[in-house]
Amino acid sequence: QQQQQQQQQQNLESKLRQHLDTTTTGETIQHQLHASLSECGWRDALTHRAQELIRQKKGGSTNVTLEELVSELISVGRATVPTEVKGEVVIRLQAVLETCHDG
After folding, report:
1. What's the rounded Cα separation, in Å, for the pair 16 and 10?
2. Cα 11 to Cα 7, 17, 72, 92, distances in angstroms
3. By three-state DSSP, how is residue 82 classified?
4. Strands (DSSP E) found in 1-103
5. Of 3, 52, 76, 85, which one has the greatest count of Cβ atoms within 10 A?
């Protein structure tokens, strides 16, 4: 039964990806996400964090590498996305899933 549930989940995920890839829905959700992140100040905060990291490394004996910067910003970025913004995306994706499941 667990294997059947996993298969059903994989099928739904596949349908969701296909729908997002073949329609403008994914692009719309992405634009809405970018707007929400900008409105709440998340993007500015992440930019400031990047600038702070670069300044800290410049003060030391080494320069920050792109890999270090990306690694740090990914973890900080994921951890600091506001719950409300995550919720908005989840609601939109659930609506798309319902459409995919019904269709």
Report:
1. 10
2. 6, 10, 34, 19
3. coil
4. none
5. 85
